[in-house]
């Protein structure tokens, strides 16, 4: 990358917050009236070659500690994706759940003059200020999974769909129960104080309501095997008859399945959440109550790496007509069953 282009791109990110605000004003004044048929013109040349080597890119990457299978997969996938590009240097900070340490890591990236930062913050609100500082320094920030409190602290944000997970799980259960309006449906949530858990539960409740069902029994765990087993044991004791269970998290689902086996219960079917390999293997084998899981992609940081590279090199997403990388990308929450499990196994994470 030449000194001139490097300076221009840094100036571009430093002005990103102002540009975003202006774009919102312009969008509000733009007519939504469609053009007459035949007047719109397709671009002359489709965007291609995004994976071809380009200008050298240095990306700083920081994420929480891998104390959970999904989080471990996040970092592993990001590192593997970065290794595919000879024009990309990844500077990986030590994974940490210490907010102050993560802030100092981002400050170090700023001091080192990296081109972009891909950041999965331990606490989005707490990392907002330092991410804003990076943007003001002309460094493209890609926010992953846990949102900053100010969207202008990032050029692009990559998210899973927590509400959509609940909707997908609830819709699948409705379909499987086939209009049985007196069915007993249970829910084993994650940590109730987290917005992500609240979003998942809200989506689940809304989807069930659409087919005349409600959550008859609900307990919360803590995303751990031990917590899942304890919560499930309490649930099963309180509910002598169930038709379906949705467990929010496949890591804690290892404990949930252990509790179900210990209780000798099999009158219901179970849906998992997140998309672990062991759960997908069980779905494929079809020899437990576990019949499906809902994906919360562990590819988010890997997607962030690809997007950061495109941003720095001034490229767009080749499958879009738009000439800029989008501001927000929310990944889908599909249901994985025995019929389609082979499609999703390659990106499943180890619990």
Give your account of this protein's structure.
- The structure is a single chain.
- By secondary structure, this protein is an alpha/beta fold.
- The protein has helices at residues 3-14, 16-28, 69-82, 99-112, 124-136, 162-177, 195-210, 225-238, 250-263, 277-285, 300-312, 341-344; strands at residues 57-62, 88-92, 116-119, 140-144, 156-159, 185-189, 215-220, 244-247, 269-274, 290-295, 328-330, 335-336.
- A 6-stranded parallel beta sheet has the order 2-1-3-4-5-11, sandwiched between helices.
- Helix 3 runs parallel beside helix 11 and helix 4 packs parallel to helix 5 (124-136).
- The longest helix is centred in the middle third of the chain and has 16 residues, at 162-177.
- It is elongated, with a radius of gyration of 22 Å.
- Mean pLDDT is 89; it is low at 17-47.
Roughly what is the average pLDDT, rounded to an integer? Answer: 89
- Poorly predicted tracts of residues: 17-47
The percent range for helix content is 40-55%
Q: Write the CATH architecture name of the largest domain.
A: 3-Layer(aba) Sandwich
Question: Rg to the nearest angstrom?
Answer: 22 Å
Say what the CATH topology of the largest domain is. Rossmann fold
The share of residues in extended strands comes to 15-25%
Number of domains: 2
Which CATH class of the largest domain applies here?
Alpha Beta
CATH superfamily of the largest domain: Response regulator
Q: How would you summarize the topology of this molecule?
A:
Blueprint: H1 3-14, H2 16-28, E1 57-62, H3 69-82, E2 88-92, H4 99-112, E3 116-119, H5 124-136, E4 140-144, E5 156-159, H6 162-177, E6 185-189, H7 195-210, E7 215-220, H8 225-238, E8 244-247, H9 250-263, E9 269-274, H10 277-285, E10 290-295, H11 300-312, E11 328-330, E12 335-336, H12 341-344
Parallel strand pairs: 1-2, 1-3, 3-4, 4-5, 5-11, 6-7, 6-8, 8-9, 9-10
Antiparallel strand pairs: 10-12
